[in-house]
Amino acid sequence: MKENRNVRKLVDKDFDTFLAIWAGAYPGQVPDNFTEDMKRQKKEDWIKTNNENTIVNFYGCFQEDKLLGGMILYDFEMNLFSKYMVKCGGIGEMCVDLLHKKEHVAKDLMIFAHNHYYDREYCLTCLYPFAPDFYTKMGYGLGNKMNQYCFEPIALQQTTKMNVSYLSMDDIEAISECFNRYVTTTHGTILRGEDSDAFKQMLVRMKVIGYWENEILMGYLAFRMKRVEGGSWLQYNIHIMEFIYDSPEAFLGLLTFLATQQDQIHRILYNTHDHYFHHFLKEPRSRGNENIFHIFQESNIQGVGIMYRLIDTLKFFTLLSDHNFGNQSIKLKLTIIDTFLPENNVQLIIHFQKGKPKVISAGEEYDVEISIDIARFSSLVMGAISLKKLYEYGLVQITDKTYLDNLDDLFRTKESPFTFEPF
């Protein structure tokens, strides 16, 4: 960090400058008519969040007293392997004054964020990148791709919507319980705390329907209706904004509701980490009906987004000492290459006994060694890619190839991560 430069939590008087820097860095998020009243409301909302929300904090990088850039840090709890809730630091709204680009402001902010969470004994951070290559250099690995399906309502299979009804502010507690119940069983999802206003905002801005079983909300679907671009005022698409379900009956009931909108709705857009949803559709072809190879027809489009980073590999295996890593019994030397966070540039010897890991002192014997960059290792342990694929791509070194199948089973997860929390 440059001399006279420091990172600290923002105070109320900093938010005028932070708002200006944010608006310059993310013009696509700023309304065309960003009035003074709108700016004042945005600033007041941020100040209230910074002062009152227990998991959201705003930080800035200062050169003496001048704010050069900022970020928001989120103290999340994330589900790992559909079983464990661990602390995860979210890094959002990273913004740098346009006059101070290429002066390592973002780097200084990221170093602070990593040290902030490392010192608090977090083992994991995550973010949405504006440029994945930029954050890969800082040790972040790609997560699960997002799929966008675009289909006609008639493509949906139908059962009954008898248990489906609109949800209102009176149902916030039931919505929160439904969502967090889903989180406790789904790898990669992030818990929403009691002070989260996400559900309130969802009910204000969207239409929300729910599926009830024995007076328990088992699923809900939030959506918006938008006019078809270039179409008449009678043509609309439904954009699914959030779809949570805790049973096959809830899944089918909520989608039956969508199927019955076919007289008014042109197409339904659904963004999901689910790579298999096309198997449910009676007509899986997407809007373009494009052939992408020979006679393979487009079913969806995909995009990269959420990225993960282990900031404390030793802590990760300590927290998961009860986890079964592929039921493998193997003595592994793990060499992590982390040039951005020296504390995590480590060599560990881990003895796995029927999948349970135990970190052993350096110098002990081992069967095989793997050497891997922290970005790739983060993607691997989160289940976004397999070890075999990393080996095939030349992104991991293994001293004894005869252990490749064992190592692949060791790090294979039952499901890829579902992280869709906007931050």
As a whole number of angstroms, the C-alpha radius of gyration is 23 Å
- Mean pLDDT value: 94
Could you state the CATH homologous superfamily of the largest domain?
Gcn5-related N-acetyltransferase (GNAT)
Number of domains: 3
Q: Which term fits the overall shape?
A: globular
Strand content: 25-35%
* Uncertain residue segments: none
- CATH architecture of the largest domain, please? 3-Layer(aba) Sandwich
Structure description:
This protein has 3 domains: 5-122, 3-Layer(aba) Sandwich (Aminopeptidase), CATH 3.40.630; 147-302, Aminopeptidase; 311-411, 2-Layer Sandwich (Nonspecific Lipid-transfer Protein, Chain A). Helices cover 26% and strands 32% of the residues. It contains 11 helices and 21 strands. It has helices at residues 15-25, 36-52, 105-119, 132-136, 172-183, 198-205, 248-259, 313-319, 374-382, 387-392, 404-411; strands at 5-9, 56-63, 66-80, 84-96, 124-127, 141-142, 146-151, 164-166, 207-213, 216-227, 236-245, 265-272, 291-293, 296-297, 301-303, 307-310, 330-337, 347-353, 356-360, 368-373, 396-398. The mean pLDDT is 94.
Layout of strands and helices, then pairs:
Layout: E1 5-9, H1 15-25, H2 36-52, E2 56-63, E3 66-80, E4 84-96, H3 105-119, E5 124-127, H4 132-136, E6 141-142, E7 146-151, E8 164-166, H5 172-183, H6 198-205, E9 207-213, E10 216-227, E11 236-245, H7 248-259, E12 265-272, E13 291-293, E14 296-297, E15 301-303, E16 307-310, H8 313-319, E17 330-337, E18 347-353, E19 356-360, E20 368-373, H9 374-382, H10 387-392, E21 396-398, H11 404-411
Parallel strand pairs: 4-5, 11-12, 17-20
Antiparallel strand pairs: 1-2, 2-3, 3-4, 5-16, 6-16, 7-12, 7-15, 8-9, 9-10, 10-11, 13-14, 17-18, 18-19, 20-21
